[in-house]
Automatic annotation (TrEMBL):
Organism from which the protein derives: Phytophthora fragariaefolia
Sorted UniProt keywords: ATP-binding, Decarboxylase, Gluconeogenesis, Lyase, Nucleotide-binding
Pfam families, per database record: PEPCK_ATP (PF01293)
GO CC terms, sorted: cytosol
Matches recorded under HAMAP family: PEPCK_ATP
Biological processes, Gene Ontology terms: gluconeogenesis
Protein name as catalogued: phosphoenolpyruvate carboxykinase (ATP)
Length: 425
């Protein structure tokens, strides 16, 4: 039996003290990587847990049907008792995301924005937040050698600025290479832990072999990133980036959103289910996940949207939508957006050069598209230009727009109809 005592959140005013009890050594090592370790022995000696997780991974619920479950696997969190029990699954992510869900409950009630997002900071103190579901590029794009990483997945935004919830990173390893993702590749060294990764006959990891699962992962302490921000904090953000993996291939690689459009797209949380992020998903499927993380949002989505609006207005933060998905056609016809092009779009947002571009308004979705971004071919900036069949583009774009409208009906409230900031269908 192994017991980990630590924190979720570097901000002492907003953190949760968590105790995680596991029966496997590797799970203990996982939470040691992922949560924040007490800095002083005196803190550990006087530790009082705000929330306790018991990981009984070898136990299954044989009466799962009678209990109204979907399988013998169970992940149960009791907010009133401040306790959770996990059974039937060995996946390390259940512990990480379970506590994140609790942070999404407690913090907003105290006016602190909890975010499924990564964050980094530039040399001038300029901070950026990247929202996005697994597979959209949060970890990859925030690991930028020109900037310091605050964190790759879970953050809070309070009156003092942005702060990391975690002490480590949990990156996908599918098709990982030193050329495309050097920071993550080089972070795999002693103390890092591979999970669900194929090991070849020479006892070496094969990141291109997905025969076990496409959801290969690596957890490592954040200090394995050479340019991490030492105190895992940042200023109020200059830019917020919504990342989406558009399987339809009709969204531009980068576009600028108004404040109202930012709320609309935050509540919509459009992306695609990307291979490896959910069981049974082997190709992208269009989906909407509110706040870019519906599974972890324990309050009504509008609570988070209202907090986001408040923060954006208070700190004059600009919002951009970046598509890391397809261009030139739908999945199976077009091609995946090249990572170097996406990085150039992100660079333009973060260094402010995008503000010098000429913008055109998309007639259907309403956001502003730049006509030029340094290092990005002009023909892909406006997605219709990258399609050979223009009529097929119009048909596909309209289909996606109607999906947006249908999905957003659930968020229309009396006196606060944000649907006017969506597609004009």
């Amino acid at each position: 039996m192994y017991v980990f005592d630590g924190h979720c959140g570097v901000n002492e005013k907003s953190r949760l003290n968590v105790r995680i009890i596991t029966e496997l050594a590797w799970q203990h090592h996982f939470v040691t990587n992922m949560f924040i370790r007490p800095e002083f022995a005196s803190v550990a000696e006087n530790f009082q847990a705000d929330f306790t997780v018991i990981n009984a991974c070898n136990i299954v619920d044989e009466d799962w049907e009678a209990h109204g479950l979907h399988s013998e696997v169970f992940v149960i969190f009791n907010i009133e008792k401040h306790m959770a029990v996990i059974g039937g699954t060995f996946y390390g992510g259940e512990m990480k995301k379970g506590i994140f869900s609790m942070m999404n409950y407690y913090l907003p009630l105290n006016g602190v924005m909890a975010m499924h997002a990564s964050a980094n900071i530039g040399k001038a103190g300029d901070t950026a937040i990247f929202f996005g579901l697994s597979g959209t590029g949060k970890t990859t794009l925030s690991a930028d050698p020109k900037r310091e990483l605050i964190g790759d997945d879970e953050h809070g935004w309070d009156d003092e600025g942005v702060f990391n919830f975690e002490g480590g990173c949990y990156a996908k390893t599918i098709d990982l290479s030193k050329e495309n993702e050097p920071d993550i590749f080089n972070a795999i060294r002693p103390n890092a832990m591979l999970e669900n990764v194929w090991i070849d006959a020479n006892n070496e990891p094969d990141y291109f072999n997905s025969s076990k699962t496409e959801n290969g992962r690596v957890s490592y302490p954040i200090y394995h990133i050479p340019h991490h921000q030492p105190n895992s904090r940042g200023n109020h953000p200059n830019a917020v980036i919504f990342l989406t993996c558009d399987a339809y291939g009709v969204l531009p690689p980068v576009s600028k959103l108004s404040a109202g459009q930012a709320q609309y797209h935050f509540l919509s949380g459009y992306t695609a289910k990307v291979a490896g992020t959910e069981r049974g998903i082997t190709e992208p499927q269009a989906t909407f996940s509110t706040c870019f993380g519906a599974a972890f949002m324990t309050l009504h989505p509008t609570k988070y949207a209202d907090l986001l609006k408040k923060k954006l207005q208070e700190h004059n933060t600009h919002v951009y939508l970046i598509n890391t998905g397809w261009t030139g056609g739908v999945y199976g016809v077009g091609k995946r957006m090249k990572l170097p092009y996406t990085r150039k779009c992100v660079d333009a947002v973060l260094d402010g050069s995008i503000n010098n571009a000429t913008f055109v308004k998309d007639p259907l979705f309403g956001f502003e598209i730049p006509t030029s971004v340094e290092g990005v071919p002009s023909e892909i900036l406006n997605p219709k230009d990258s399609w050979t069949d223009k009529a097929a583009f119009d048909e596909t774009a309209l289909k996606l727009a109607k999906s947006f409208k249908e999905n957003f009906k659930q968020f229309i409230l009396p006196g606060n109809d944000l649907s006017v900031y969506g597609p004009s269908v």
